Amino acid sequence: MTPRDYLPPTARHYETAVAQLPRLDGRTVAITGSTSGTGAVLARTAGRLGARLLLLNRPSDRAASSAAELERNGIDATQIDCDLQSFDSVRAGAAAALACTPAGIDVLCNNAGVMGLPDRATVDGCDIQMQTNHLSHFLLTSLLWPGLRRAASERGEARVVNHSSGARHGAALQARYLEHTGGQLGGDGFPGLAKWRRYQQSKLANLLFSYALSDRMPAEDRARGMKALAAHPGPTNSGLQAKTANAGGMRLLDRYILARTLKVAHAVEDGALGIIRASFDPDAQDGQFYGPAGRGEPGPAVLLPSERDAGAEKLLWDVSLHTTGVDDYWPRPDRPQSIERGQ
Q1: Residue 200 lies in a domain
Q2: Coiled-coil stretches, from where to where (predicted)?
């Protein structure tokens, strides 16, 4: 089985779960990677519940048409150009997002991701998977913190939600994957396992970032109701499988990994329920983790046990600060945005 001949299953849990969520009128939800997969489901769901949407996507015809389609369905959606493979683009996108949200940002869902791509460096010299999946989200969160803080001050809550994966299981986090080592980590030769190790490291980083963010959040922001949460989709055909295949260089191992996922995958609507609950469930608390309970099996999104590793969380935080160039993650009242090296 390949992504091209895959027949999507029917959603089993989505409508029941969404029917239990509150209205989001007057709230602003920012989402990365909203043109397809779980991000598109999250956008449609937030809009259906009355939220205003900020869609942070790489500039493309697909991004523009996706925002236009939401608008045609009566949803307030604004496309913000933000290419996660460029720190400069992230900075520009964050500035644009803050400029159009004077009332603040209630939810930032760091959803976008790539999977199983060849060993390639971004314009910033980082691994393409790690920068797209984690490092640029780390930077984006720091830059949008004033908007999140404003929403929490005015409406009593704001959330950052990071999208991990069942692929997080495996090797412990290693600093070299977070550094300026793009194109030097391997993954294109036989048997092709290293590309999947790089993906595993990036999805582990997503979860560790949520815990590290929660622990390091200033007490005054926690008192405002600011929260950091994580989710995973379980086996889902979110569109990443097809992108991996289209990237070329598919080896037997790649085909096996993708086919195994698609064989048990649930509907993308059900796969989005982890980030939907983490973003909108009124009972969700800071530091929590949502997704299917099985290890590699589909199912409803439930509250999962924490997976803490203090040493790995510190490593992730320290190296991510250095690689992204952020000196001061938490903006103080006299400093409206995080301060970056050389600026």
Answers
A1: yes
A2: none
Residues forming a β-bridge with 56: 32, 80
At 198-252, the pLDDT tens digits run 999 999 999 999 999 999 999 999 999 999 999 999 988 765 444 444 455 555 5
Q: In the beta sheet, which residues pair with residue 226?
A: 158
CATH number of the domain that 71 lies in? Answer: 3.40.50.720
Total domain count for the chain?
1
Query: Could you tell me the residue range of the domain that residue 116 belongs to?
Result: 3-322
Distance between CA atoms of residues 18 and 108, nearest Å: 19
Please compute Rg for the chain using Cα positions. 19
Give CA–CA dist 70/288, Å, rounded: 30
Rounded distance between C-alpha atoms, residue 248 and residue 343, angstroms = 39
Question: How confident is the model over 189-212, as pLDDT tens digits?
Answer: 766 789 999 999 999 999 999 999
Whether the upstream peptide bond of residue 146 has omega within 30° of 0, thus cis, is no
Q: What pLDDT score does 294 carry?
A: 84
Query: Beta-carbon neighbour count of residue 26 at 10 Å?
Result: 12
Between CA 82 and CA 100 the distance in angstroms is 15
Two structure tokens written together for 228: 């950091």
Q: What is the pTM of this model?
A: 0.91
Residue where the block lists tokens 């929403």: 151
